[in-house]
């Protein structure tokens, strides 16, 4: 499976920085797909820079409704219209800061698929849940609640992001990542059949050039969703180059 290295730019940078960062990635990395996810307002200019390159562009969220009186929200079709092809959904920062639930993530994922976007659905346990030995149960439950029918065949992507590893410099051990990814693969194949063997499963949470190779070598890890290190072109490309040939 061709690996995907995705950058979640979160709420960072101004327009000039976003364009410059995208320009720095245009050359791409052989054998790896790149995806960058800027804030909504930078989607179109970044998509213009990425046009004809090996870099795809995605949003960080979308609304579940097609249109309507939803002040401040952005529909999946609007995201698609910017030139973006992907959308991150159910990121733990959205689940925490905007009270998103599995059901709302499911509805947004359905809207994204209907608009022709490839969803990147995020799951992951909190530190308390991991310490309570519930990490695999939490992730399995989130997958069951937020992945709709049609996701697998449309090329939907899943990102495992343990909440306590995001922006902290801490990561699970390679054994812990491998165990969750094997659990996710098993759960998806059980629910959706053998097509789910080709669903990309990304790891996210403090991925850096220095720890990327070890993570990418694990079975059922098909790439990464990178936060902080995706804001520096050289670091993001170094992570992509760490993918085994
Ligand atoms: P960091 O790579 O900064 O830990 O962020 C991970 C993340 O949340 C990507 O979506």
Q: What is the arithmetic mean of pLDDT?
A: 97
Percentage of residues in strands: 15-25%
What is the SS-derived class?
A: alpha/beta
Largest sheet: 8 strands, parallel, barrel
> Can you name the CATH architecture?
Alpha-Beta Barrel
Number of strands: 8
| Low-pLDDT sequence parts | none
Alpha-carbon Rg, integer: 17 Å
Q: What is the CATH topology classification name? A: TIM Barrel
Helical proportion? 25-40%
What is the CATH H-level superfamily? Aldolase class I
Overview of this protein structure:
The chain is globular. It has a single domain, classed as Aldolase class I (TIM Barrel, Alpha-Beta Barrel). The relative contact order is 0.15. With 245 residues, it is an alpha/beta fold. The chain contains ten helices and eight strands. The chain binds 1,3-dihydroxyacetonephosphate. 1,3-dihydroxyacetonephosphate binds next to strand 8.
Helices and strands in order:
Blueprint lengths: L3 E5 L6 H11 L7 E5 L5 H8 L4 E5 L16 H6 L4 E4 L2 H6 L4 H13 L3 E6 L3 H5 L3 H12 L10 E4 L13 H19 L8 E4 L4 H8 L6 E4 L6 H9 L4
Parallel strand pairs: 1-2, 1-8, 2-3, 3-4, 4-5, 5-6, 6-7, 7-8
Helix pairs in contact: 1-2, 1-10, 5-7, 7-8, 9-10
The structure holds 1,3-dihydroxyacetonephosphate.
1,3-dihydroxyacetonephosphate binds next to strand 8.
Features:
10 helices, 8 strands, binds 1,3-dihydroxyacetonephosphate, 245 residues, alpha/beta, globular
